[in-house]
Structures are given as structure tokens and as C-alpha cells.
Amino acid sequence: MTWVNAVIQGVLQGGIYALIACGLSLAFGVMRVVNLAHGDLAVCGAYLALVLSTGLGVPVWYVLPLVLPAAFVVGMGLQVLLLRRALRGGEFATVLVTFGLSVMIENLLLVGATANDRVFNTGAIGVASLHIGSQITLPWLFVAAFLTACGVLSGLQLVLSRTSWGRKVRAIADDIDTARLVGVRVGPLFATVAGIAVATAALAGVFIGAIGNFNPLTGTTMLIFAFEAVVIGGLGSLWGTLVGGIALGVTQVVVGEINQAYAVLAVHLLFLLVLAIRPAGLFPSGQQARVAQVLG
Amino acid sequence: MTALLEISGLDVYYGDFQALFGVGLRVAQGQALALVGANGAGKTTLLRTIAGAISPARGTIRYDGEDITTAAAHRRIRRGIALVPEGRRLFPSLTVEENILVGAAAAASAAWPLERIYEIFPLIARRRRHRASQLSGGEQQAVAIGRALAAAPSLLLLDEISLGLAPKVVGELYRTLSSLRESGATLVIVEQDLRRALSACDTVVCLLEGRVALAAAASVGRDEVVAAYFGNGQEKPA
Amino acid sequence: MAPPELEPVRVRRWSLAASATAGSAAVVLAVLAAVPYFIGGPAEQPLIIAFTFIAMATLWNLLAGFSGLTSFGQNAYIGAGAYGLYLVASHGVNPFADIAAAAVISGLVALPVSALLLRLSGGYFAVASLVVAAVFQIAVTLAPSVGGTTGVSVPGLGGYDPVLREALTYWAAMIVAVVCVVGVFLLVRAGFGMDTRAVASDPVAAASLGVRVGRIRLLAYLAAALGTGAVGALIALQTMFIEPTSVFSIQYSVEMLFMVLVGGMGTIEGPIIGALILFALQQTLSQNGAWYLVLVGGVAVAATLTVPRGLWGFVSDRWGWSLFPVGYQVRDRREEA
Fold first, then answer.
1. Does the distance separating the beta carbons of B94 and A170 come in below 8 Å?
2. DSSP string, C60-103
3. Contact, A72 vs A80, CB < 8 A?
């Protein structure tokens, strides 16, 4: 693979990281919650897709219309049944609860699905490649993933800026007390935000599983990558998250070309570097209060 | 005159600290009530309790004949109570228009249209696409009032709208409040500036350390209010 | 109006219960120290595990319960301590004496990490701590000098008679546990505790009151790294073999979470109780196994939601018990008449 090819592929892969990161970013911006089970929920989405796609005997893409709504409902349910209660205990309690949840999910998956790596039936698109010129060969899977990610991010951005729901969500992210005071119903909004977070995570989980493989423990890595993308890109900015994801993807693929064993380490080191030099990320939003809160 | 808002025996706590002791007041439909008192007397606490941000430990709040003591904030907005909070508390990353629209959302179909708000505050209409954080103090106050008005309230609660603003700007705001009153709105105004408060309102309630120290018609005169303000009557306020 | 008369009060920092605890603890420790002489191997192994649990729980409580630092990456320092032991031992130093050195190495490693990590708080700090643990683990697997993915055996142990080796490991574990508990107790009592609890609940308010928030978090983080490193060294001595996936296992973090949440955050007694409960759980169920972790995770979640201050916290809130008093008791003089 040439360098240009590697970089482009890294960019495309970064789109998927942005996809899994956007739910985390949205949830934190609105609810001030870092759901440590986020990555594991993405993996659950992948397993659900696997079960459905194997059971129905179709490529995994066909079952997305089933998986995504289910994930949305799970997200809402999780928020209403568990996280709302945890939130009353403060951010501290929520971190502990979501970590415990993460442990439970991973180990239940281990029991139910064993530790074996799984792959998807990705159908025709899984093996097709896009050829640009003589140097560049991009698997269609990566292109589709990137385009989907951009589509989802654009859609989210549009909904946030143009709809009444979006205005209320942004109002809550700015000042939850005043939002309540002017009559915004925070509970239902939290539930829908949580639903979106899990649905986007599940979609990302399916793509991640499709371009490689997955097992019950993949969730932790996904959480870490999502988190790193958010921090590198800057809190409070959806497009910043895309840039963050791309930074991760490019680093991983390019370093992987040199030595695969160092790829993931390089990504983590990039994150630590950004944390050291520019903790507010590459595109910090004007929300200094939120940044300050996260940065202690 | 029927009492639109009727409060009795209100006890409000912040944790172990009691902020309001058996507070009661009545506001008739179409009236303006001035709520005065020194800092920390409990004025903001009282307004926030009426708006539904704080739950009282004891007491009742009746609005338009209905007991709303335990009703959630969004239900109170629907019923017609809107608060312009102390310090304006606009949503900084939202534009002027978006701020107002969020205020309107709670009232659903009964909400005032944007145009009506811009008619009342023509100066902010020009800044409708600007972020709230980019506005001057006076403009922000106008937006805050506009946001509350968008919910089509019958009772408007205003908390210290003159804070940090030039007298001319404050004058404009009060002229607007005046015309709102003429259209039949009922107001409860927390105001540090006693002169303005008394001239703009029909009745005055003075709080002292969480208790009602005076409840009278505004015509009762400044000196009596000052006496109630400090309990013993020492320094004079503005 | 004249000011009200001030009633005479006395402020106490110690209590009868505390003295009783100190006394009985001394007795218990003496008995435990004698175990290798009277019972030997079969009792030592589980007790070593219990000691490591007590140490880990107490240290994690220092971080999370007293300083508001929810670190799920403490397993990084278990590994750091284990490999630190290996490095020092492979230069010929007696492995048992190395525990202190391994702790120091762990603490030194924590210094640059803290410079990065302590910029964050809350959930972001938690995830970042996971990143750090991942980095440690990957770095080790890429370094052939410490055995890469296959691992290394602890040098210098071969020369010991097995019975002696086990006994020495046992006493070392006991000492580490006692040092951790006493150390955290003294740290928390010495004003540090009041401040850390303020920091944990509201760093901004605490900072505005002059509490040196940054310094407290740093101190807590380094102390925890030191202690956890010692525990890691102990674990290495007990298993005699150091392998990345087991020594950096996130299971340690899960167990720390469980012990502190169930036993009680923000108290000295709580983690000890939590450690004993986990120990009992682990001895009756199988130690490794997905179901074990599901249960541990699930109980931790339930504990957070129902008894947020843990079992001991619940008890001490209700009845005011305190065996290791770290606060101040104000007593009305008249009560003592």
C-alpha cells in the first residue's frame, strides 16, 4: 500500500471513530455524563446484528433497520431505568455505575457468545474496492463507512441547529437549570439523547465489526478510541469529533504500515500528546465552562 | 378583584438553611406587585419557588384557583407563569431568536409569535441572528423578558431587571412593562430601586430575612418601606 | 440584644471505640503474624489474597472516596510494581527487599502520568486512566527485555526453601496491608482528609476556599500509585511469574470498585469490610470466570444506587460508629458531666 493510500484509508477509518465518538460527545455535552459502557453498547449492537444477519441469512446491512431502532430503545430504557437514578447521585455515581455496567455487559457477552472473534457477512460490498488511478485502492466498505459517518454527523448537526428539539437540547447543554425554568422537559430529552447515543454507537459497532472483527472485550477499546477522538477534536463540537476521529484513523493506519504492533500505541500516544499540549482539543468550542469542568 | 396568585405559609429550605418563613402574599389579576428587600432577604428564592424551580417544605401556592404547589415548572408555564430570572440567564450559544423560541416551546400553540415579541422590543429584532453572548446588557435583558413573554404568560415574574443597566435603558424597559400592564398582564417585580418599584407597581411586599415585613399599597410611601427594609431603620437604600 | 452565651464545647479526635480498635487490631495482627508458624501454607495463600484486597481497597478509596479521583486504571500500577520488582530483582537485589523499590518505581512512573491525567476530572479522568493502563500494557508487551507477551519469572526466588518463601511473602503482604491502612488513615486524619472530601464534592468551591486542590489530588494520586505498586510487587512474588495480561488485568480495577462501593467510600473501615466481603465471595465462587465478574459488577452497581456510602457508610451515618476516627467530634461539655 502506498502512503497516499494509507492516509486516505486512515481518513475513512477515522469516520467510523467519529461515528462512535459523536454519541459520547452528545451525551456528555447535554447530560454531563460519560457513559463508560458506550463502547460495550456498540459491541452489543454488533452482536445483535450478527445474530439477526446469521439467523435471517442476509448480509449484515439488511438488518440495520432492525438493529438501530432497537439500540435507540435500549438507550432510552437505560437512561430512564438506570442512568436517571444514577444521575441523582451526581456525576461520581454515574461514572461508577456505567463502569459496573460495562463490566457486566462484557462478561455477559463472554458467557453468551464466548471470547471468539466474530466476523460479519458483509455481502458484496465487503469485498469490492474502489480504484482511483493506479495507486489508490480503497475497500468500498471503508468508503461506505465514512460516507455514513458524515451523513449521520450532518444529520445530527442539522437537527441540532434547525429543530425545536435541537434548540432545547442546546439550551440544556448551555444551562440546564434555566432550561427547566423556561419549561423545557429535561427528562424526555435526556431519554432521546441517550437513545441517539446508543443508536449511533451500534451503527459504529457494526461498521467496526465489518472492517475487522469483534469480540466481547472490544468495547473497552472502542470506548477509549471514542473518548480520544472527542478530546483531540475538542469538546462540544461535532465536526471537531470528525477531525479527531480522522487523526486517530490516520495515525493508526499509517503507523500500522510501518509496524502493526505499534499502531494502537501510537494512537494512545497521540492522545496523550494532545492532552499535554492542547488539552482543549483542536477545535475547542466557546463553552469554556464545560471545558473547565472536564479539565478539573 | 380576584386573586390570580395566592401564596400562604410558605417555608423554603436550602438544605438545612431556612430561607423563607411562612411567607404569604396575594396578587390580583392585572396588578403589579413590587417585591423588595435587602440582599439575601429571600426575594429571588420566592420568585423561583413560584416558578417551580424550588419546592417549598410547607405552604401553598394557588394560581388562578388551582393549587400548583407541587406542579413541575413546565406545567406552571403552561398555566401561564413565566419567570425572567435574576442575571438574565440567556442561553449563550443560542441566538436571540432561538432563545425566544425555546421560551415559546413550552407554551406550544398558545405561544406568542416572534413578530409580537419583536414589536415589543424592536431593538432586538435587528439582532435576531446574533448569539445571545454577543449582546449588550440592556439587549440581553430585553431578550430575557421576550423569552418569558413568548410563553404567553398571564403572570410575569421579573427578578432584578435593572441590575447593571444604565438608567435610560432601565427606563425603556419599565415603559415596556407599563404597556404590558395596560394589555392586562399581571406582574411581580423584584427591584432594588425603590423609587422605580413604587412608581411602577400597585402594591408592595417587603421581605426581611425570609419573612414578610410589610405588605401594603404602593402609595404607603417610601419611608415606611425603608423602615420595613431594615427592620430597625438605619441606612437608606437607593 | 446581648449575644447568646457560648456553651463550653470540647473537640475530640479520638474515642473509646478507636482505642479499643487499635488494641484489638494489635492483637489480631500478632495472631496473624504467627500463622506461618502454626498453620503454614494452606492458610497463608488465601490470607495473602485478603491482604492484597485490603491494601488495594484502601488505596482506591484514598483516590475515589477521599479525593474524587475515579481511576479505573490502577491496574497500570499493579503492573508497574510487578515489573519494577522484576527489574530490580534481576540486578541481584533480594526480591523481598525489592517491594519498597518497586513501590518507588511505580510512584516515579506516576509522576509524569499525573501531570497529564490530573488535568481531567470526573468521567474524563476515568477514561483517561484506562488509556494510561492500556499504554503501560502495550509498552510492556513490545519490550522484549521484560519478556514481551510471554512474560518473565521473578528472579532470585529459586534460592529459597518453598516454606520460607511462602512465609516471607505472607509477612510482606501483611506489612504492606498494614502500612497502607495506617498510612491512608494518618494522611486522611492530618487535615488532608477534610480537604480531600471538600475537593471530592466540589473542587471549585474548595479551591475558592484556599484548599490547594491540585496539590491534594497529586498527593493522593502518587500515594495510591506507590501503594498499588507495592501490591503489584507482592502479587508478582506470590505468583512468581509476571505476565502482561494478568498483571494489567482490569479485573483488579473492578474488584477495587466493588470493595470500596460495597464496604463504604470515604471511611477507613469501609474498604476493609468490602475487602473481606469480596474475599469471602471469591473463596466461595471461582475466582476467574465471567459470572464472577458479572456478579461483582452488578453488586457494585446496585451498591452505588442503593447504599451510596456503602455498608459501613450506612452504619456510621445511622449510628455514628467510627473505629478509625478521621474527623472531629464536637461534644457539649454538659454531656460529659
1. yes
2. HIIIIIHH----S-THHHHHHHHHHHHHHHTTT--TTTHHHHHH
3. no
pLDDT attached to residue A289: 46
Tally the residues of chain C.
337
Q: How confident is the model at residue C145 (pLDDT cuts 50, 70, 90)?
A: confident
Asked if B151 reaches chain A (Cβ–Cβ under 8 Å), the answer is: yes
Name which of A33, A264, A295 is nearest C120 (Cβ-Cβ): A295
Grid cell for residue B190: 423584584
Is the model more confident about C93 or about B238?
Answer: C93
Listed as own residue / partner, the contacts of A56-62 with beta carbons closer than 8 Å and 24 or more positions apart are A58/A121, A58/A123, A59/A120, A59/A121, A59/A122, A59/A123, A59/A124, A59/A125, A59/A126, A60/A120, A60/A121, A60/A122, A60/A123, A60/A206, A60/A209, A60/A210, A61/A122, A61/A123, A61/A125
**Residue B94, phi then psi, degrees to nearest 5:** -95, 155
SS3 content of chain B, % helix, strand, coil (to 5): 40, 30, 35
Instruction: Name the CATH architecture for the domain at B1-80+154-160+181-238.
Output: 3-Layer(aba) Sandwich (3.40)
- Neighbour subunits, B (≥3 Cβ pairs < 8 A): A
pTM for the model? 0.86
Tell me the sheet residues that pair with B26: B6
Q: Say if residue C333's pLDDT is above 50.
A: yes
Is A279 in CB contact (< 8 Å) with chain C? yes
Cα separation, C25 vs C21, in Å, equals: 6
CB B131 within 8 A of CB A163: no
Q: Do chains B and A touch (3 or more CB pairs under 8 A)?
A: yes
Say which of B51, B91, B147 has its CB closest to residue A174.
Answer: B91
pLDDT for the residue A225:
94
pLDDT surpassing 80 at residue C322: no
Strand partners, B34: B189, B204
Cell of A237: 463540537
Confidence of residue C123 (pLDDT cuts 50, 70, 90): confident
Q: Are A205 and A20 in contact, with CB atoms under 8 Å apart?
A: yes
Lowest mean pLDDT among A20-34, A115-129, B14-28: A115-129
**Assembly ipTM:** 0.88
| Residues C99, C253 contacting (CB under 8 angstroms) | no
Paired residues of C329 in beta bridges:
C12
Q: Strand pairing of B81-84 and B155-159?
A: parallel
Give SS3 for A74: helix
Total residue length of chain A: 296
With CA atoms as reference, the chain C residue closest to A274 would be C116
Instruction: State the residue range of the domain holding A35.
Output: 3-294
pLDDT of residue C336: 47
Output the pLDDT for position A75: 96
Task: Quickly state the pLDDT bin for A288 (edges 50, 70, 90).
Answer: very low
C264 and C310 in contact (C-beta within 8 Å)? yes
Please give the tally of structural domains in chain A.
1
The pLDDT score that the predictor gives to residue C266 is: 80
**Chain C residues touching A265 at Cβ < 8 A:** 135, 138-139, 142
pLDDT of residue B190: 94
Whether C263 and C311 have beta carbons less than 8 Å apart is answered as yes
Those residues of chain A whose CB sits closer than 8 Å to some CB in chain B are 164, 167-168, 170-171, 173-175, 177-185, 285-287
Q: Does residue A125 surpass a pLDDT of 90?
A: no
- The pLDDT-based confidence of A194 (bands split at 50, 70, 90) is very high
Predicted local confidence at residue A242, as pLDDT: 93
Binding partners of A (≥3 Cβ pairs within 8 A): B, C
> Helix A218-233 to helix A263-277 angle, to the nearest 10 degrees?
40
Least confident of B94-98, C25-29, C106-110, C285-289: C285-289
Note whether A39 and A219 are within 8 A (CB). Answer: yes
